Amino acid sequence: MPIALPDLLTQEKVILRLRSRKPANAIREIVDVLASDIGGRKIQNPEAFLEQVLAREETHPSVVENSAAFPHARTEMVDEIVIGVGRSRAGIAFGENQQRAHLIFVIAVPERLISDYLVCVGTLARLVKDETIRSRLLNAETPHEFVEALTTETL
Hints:
By secondary structure, the chain is of the alpha/beta class. It has helices at residues 5-8, 23-34, 46-59, 114-129, 131-139, 143-151, and strands at residues 14-15, 68-69, 72-75, 82-94, 99-110.
């Protein structure tokens, strides 16, 4: 099954102004949005999912490339891939090298969809690598503009 970002990311799952300055808190902010019923897909047990993501960050910290980090967990708490995004103007230091991520994509993936996850992250990474798209993401004024910047290129 091909990955279609317009099906995976809705404007209700985008936070344009993260309040948090630390990775764990930023991830929590995004997971809170993923727990809501707004915008479709949601995580069944947000606290347990948050613990899974943070445990994975402890052992395998997200690497920041092109101002983006992709903290995630493979879990049975979702039936389909769920994506939430937070944007930080100041950036949040991730990983061992403490590079700043301005775009944080939190991804919940069903255990059985390993290849779909790889395609999803590969697609997102390719998009944020593009300077024009990354600039649109970093400067979007509304969640709608943010989602449009990602999804118009993948249709």
